[in-house]
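Final report, results section. Input specification for complex C-07:
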Amino acid sequence: VTGLAVIAALVVASTAAAQTRTLVVGTSATYPPFASENAQKQIVGFDVDVINAIAQKTGLRVRLVNTPFVGIFASLDNGDIDLIVSGVTINDRRKQSYDFTAPYFEARQLLAVPASSPVTVLQDLAGKKIAVVTGSTGDDVASRAFGKTSPNVRRFDTTPLIISELVNAGVDAAIGDNGVIAYRVQEHKGLKTVADPAMPKEYFGIAVKRGNAALRDALNRGLAAIIADGTYTAIYRRWFKSEPPVLPKS
Amino acid sequence: MDQPQILWFGWFRADIIQEYAPLFWTGLQMTVGVTAMCIVQGSMLGLLLGMARLADARHGVAKAVCRYGLRWPATVYVSFFRGTPLFVQILLMHFAVVPLFVNPADGWLVSGDLARDLRQDYGAMITGIATLTLNAGAYISEVFRAGIQSIDRGQMEAARSLGLTFRQAMRHVVLPQAFRRMLPPLGNNAIALLKDSSLVSAVGLAELSYAARTVAGAYSRYWEPYLTIAFMYWVLTLGLAWGVRRLEARYGRGDTR
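Structure output:
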């Protein structure tokens, strides 16, 4: 019982402290154009600009820490980081365990295949080998379509690895978020992207610990503010060379 | 707060493991299979390398051949594989070295559709077996070298003076004695190899760790999958250690008086 009391006290103390200290932002920096590390070891990208703009608007102080995606939610659980801004798709399963801000990016799953591939929709990949990032939305899509324990679904740690595996003909296709897949495919002439129109719209959100409403609300206010004053549009244009879609408010 | 849920019983969601049971089962088979193959091949490679590192001759050309053709390459090889992280070797092998040899476009060894099939069906397994064998060979060569060197020079001299050739003396006199001394370190290497095989999951080989990563990725839960495979690895290493003890008892019979 004393142990619980101590834990409770620590939790309360840390929540109070969170308002004044620098917030640690976990991001997996192998995900251009959302987040990647440049030669100076700085993390740059759309996600980075968005969270920095929000921080500036709200007066929150933030520090980005490069955190591998496979352990990023565990890092949030155990308090190593205070929030995740890492191209995290909001879904029901994640909403059970974490709180999300309003969407800050509209995404769709996109297939990458060799330029000569006849694949046009996801179902064309039945019986084919597919590379995905472990635990990503692409993993979800492939697992749901072809079986969670199917040997045809090959899981890797990062997006560069699934593209390399595709380039080296280890798989027939890679599945990932449109922004990242499109960016990576540009770098490889032998590849093309395939958009399955049946893939649902998804939204990226900023994840905070379950119940950390104070932080979530602050972030939401900041996000609404940068969308209202055009900062968001400028950031979107810079990284995606196109106009941002209208995002839902929650 | 649902934070300290680990404090009471029932936190272990066995249903998750159940759901992914086929992945854990095939993963276990893959881990055991790859480890077994690599122990056998690594030992053979290790024996060759160990011999190469001990190669010497008394005169002229043969002496130079032994030095520059055998000892030096073997030393550099062992130094590289012991001096670089296995994880780095695996990534290098899978994404850089193997694609040079097996590549649908212009593989040096295999190309065309066969290369594509090989890469797709066995790509990660080829990488895993090749890298672990090459790596284990380097470590095991040191075991062989030390084992052979630990046998008193007089044994070889006595065997040769009885009229045995070098080859016969090595095979019937020195190696059997050395083997007995090499068993414990060989057992250690086998256990290390079993555990190291977990690193191959990084290139998508569906072994035990891959199963755990898949579950952790899907549920963001870490106790269940990793505790499960930790237990499985533990049982496997206990089994290996038991096997090595049996072998020691068998080959060590002559020692007890």
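Chain B is about 75% helix and 0% strand. The first helix of chain B runs from residue 14 to 19. This concludes the modelling results for the funded period.
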